[in-house]
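Standup notes
- DV: blocked on the single-chain target, sequence here:
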Amino acid sequence: MEVTKVLSFNQLCESGFPYRDYKWLDEAGHFVGIVEEKSWGRSQNLIVYCRLIENDDITRKICFSVYQQRDCYMGFKDVPKGAMLNLFFLKNSKNRGYLVRWNDAA
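- DV (later): unblocked, structure below
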């Protein structure tokens, strides 16, 4: 697994990471995902880019925000790229999925 550094948005763009290929999750449920990258957002949030694994296949590229007031980004600052995680989402009033908890899937 790689280092746990969180990139600024400029660093993310300069790195060539295809962040535009990742869509905001718009559903509730339990998912297994692999952390691909992390960047700082504009509102004291961390944006996590993941590939979801469904039926033993990597199926979708998603992103979601984790906010500072949620127990210091829910520990995502220290999650290394390549980590496989169980992710649990609910839906908010804007119909966007938001992370309520996570744990290691490995």
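- Follow-up: The chain has one domain: 9-104.
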